[in-house]
From TrEMBL, chains A, B:
PTM annotation (Phosphohistidine): residues: H240
Protein name, entry field: Nicotinate phosphoribosyltransferase
Free-text description of this protein's post-translational modifications in UniProt: Transiently phosphorylated on a His residue during the reaction cycle. Phosphorylation strongly increases the affinity for substrates and increases the rate of nicotinate D-ribonucleotide production. Dephosphorylation regenerates the low-affinity form of the enzyme, leading to product release.
Enzyme Commission no: 6.3.4.21
Nicotinate/nicotinamide phosphoribosyltransferase domain location: 188-421
Amino acid sequence: MVDIATRVYNHKWKIDPIVRSLIDTDFYKLLMCQSVFRNKRDTHVSFSLINRSTEIPLAELIDEGELREQLDHIRTLSLTRGESTWLRGNTFYGKRQMFRSDFMEWFENLRLPPYYLEKRDGQYELTFEGRWPEVMLWEIPALAVLMELRSRAVLETMGKFELQVLYARAMTKLWEKIERLRDLDRLRVADFGTRRRHSFLWQDWCVQAMFEGLGEKFVGTSNCLIAKNRDLEAIGTNAHELPMVYAALAETDAELRKAPYRVLADWHEEHEGNLRIILPDTYGTEGFLENAPDWLAGWTGIRIDSGDPATGAETAIRWWKSRGEDPRKKLIIFSDGLDADKISDLHRQFDGRAKISFGWGTLLTNDFRGLVSDDRLAPFSLVCKAVSANGRPTVKLSDNPNKAMGPAGEIARYKRVFGVGEQEALEVVV
Amino acid sequence: MVDIATRVYNHKWKIDPIVRSLIDTDFYKLLMCQSVFRNKRDTHVSFSLINRSTEIPLAELIDEGELREQLDHIRTLSLTRGESTWLRGNTFYGKRQMFRSDFMEWFENLRLPPYYLEKRDGQYELTFEGRWPEVMLWEIPALAVLMELRSRAVLETMGKFELQVLYARAMTKLWEKIERLRDLDRLRVADFGTRRRHSFLWQDWCVQAMFEGLGEKFVGTSNCLIAKNRDLEAIGTNAHELPMVYAALAETDAELRKAPYRVLADWHEEHEGNLRIILPDTYGTEGFLENAPDWLAGWTGIRIDSGDPATGAETAIRWWKSRGEDPRKKLIIFSDGLDADKISDLHRQFDGRAKISFGWGTLLTNDFRGLVSDDRLAPFSLVCKAVSANGRPTVKLSDNPNKAMGPAGEIARYKRVFGVGEQEALEVVV
């Protein structure tokens, strides 16, 4: 029996919305948003979509009207009562009332600001401008919408059973990864795959499969909506946008040099324990750690998000030792371009030498490689980044020059200020 | 939204019935039943379950109470009005009113007769006794129930996502076969997989996937309920039980020798065109064809159901030629132990030399080989056969001694009467 009311209700949707909730976003976005709301509320920022996989002509694949409908729908969303209750009442990282009342009141009244969309050279130019705490919340839903519209464009031509077999293959593929990971003692892995997921429903499936297949080795998801619905831990700390904007706001080279530490000083005031995770690579990990104040060595851990991950982890371990810290008590979170094999390798390499944990993203929630002809469902490297703050361009160097961003002149200046020399260029797959 | 009424209704089932309709059976059973109803209505027969895969201890795997509940449920079934209308009004093999009114009236009032169930040596002894047209209708549902209860026993311990991945793998496996078959020009393949299916829902899925994936190359299903529900052709002609029972009823060796032809003479009176398909192997194909009356060479085709299929087809082609018939106008139906590779091979070998068609059974609807540990879902060779008629044992020789049945003394007698010499023993997989 079909539920008639459900069918009728579904027909009332003008579109099939991809993002249906303001908390269908990464947990760290909300943590950072609260921090920004407290410390940099009036900073004017601009975020832009950047498709690093230029061979994927997004503007040819995705209908502009459909994209506008999805983005417009997101602008109609506001926090529901249940979502607000969850954010206010739930325990995050063991702490109650992670989100302060003033922030929650602001968030409860938030609608996302306008977007600016144009087509150029087969790509979409999608930009968000306004106050930082508002604009920053566009990043994840904008990415999720573009990724899923691209999936839909490919799926549109497929038959019902062909589709079922496609998902059957994708399920099998993920399950085989889970079966391999299950054998790793002391594994800790979380879902970080919201932004570049194949689709919302698929991410939801992946998370549940991880939960059933890995048990306690699956520590949670970065996606707040899924964490809430599935009663899982919401996972995440902070990201590059904080040092990037703080750096752009610096008036002098001396201030610029201090900016990444200013970010963490603000963070230090707000958070403790497992939320004190250093993201060292924005302007080169080596220099960042070398010049870091001693109180940072006391932080819980470090997240390795670019460059060769094993090299990054060795650097961190060396640094902790040089500061008199015991690396075995420290947490290393790997979160860049992971897949089951890389997770296994890194786990074998570092298990016992530090506490380690994995934030598994795109190849968890969007590994459709090899499943359709011409690989038209393979994930690609789409990002949405802060590109300016109060009218000044932002810069990211990272530990991989292929992930660097910003105007060439500014990149050169940052490299000089942060003492970044030769870097190994690594292919950015996802 | 869940449909509350559906949930509540489902909770009212005391069991989850495997067979829910008297037409959840092979089409040829109904054709044969009508023929038996006309010609041998009062013959007393006994049908027995035979598990040729003795390494599968069915009575240890399947709970006796559950088996009884399923069999008891089948005894509560009667033809619904819609089913009756379909049988009376639908076109089968291009013919209207395939089922005569007197037969339909009898069928509409039918309930299946009692069953006799015992455990012995880890196996079930399941027997049906009574009038032939009633007892014969137990064969397919009895097999389907045992096959599906065995599947359920294995699936019971699996988690929700593990289960989903299991079916994902099975779907992928079938779809890859379909993709290979799709490339064969002039392919004609039907589903013959009711009796040894993994489950009803799985068979229904397989049939729909074949329909979408193969288009017109998929010619229909032997399962009447699925043919009705999915608006497909119901496929099938006749089976070994006719010559086996006719032979058992023979009073003398001379009558025995004529019995297989008597069956087809009765069939000749009732059916024409694509329903005139010879099943020659009950007592050895070679001798059967050699001694066949000339009118049989005029029949439309032949079904190869045991022995090496290519050899059987060559024998048929030679025989047609020796009788002045053009094999290219004849139909050869392969139906024994087929899988995609064998279908491809036979198609390449005989396409153009005769019209050919495939009845794909167990490895279409139950190929779960290699999908769980210890291969506990692999299909196995379960049959339900007429073992006696009016108190006399039946015998089947077939073209493969591993498929022979009956008391040793009777087998020897039949071999002598039908002039069957040395036969090649082939492994019976399914």
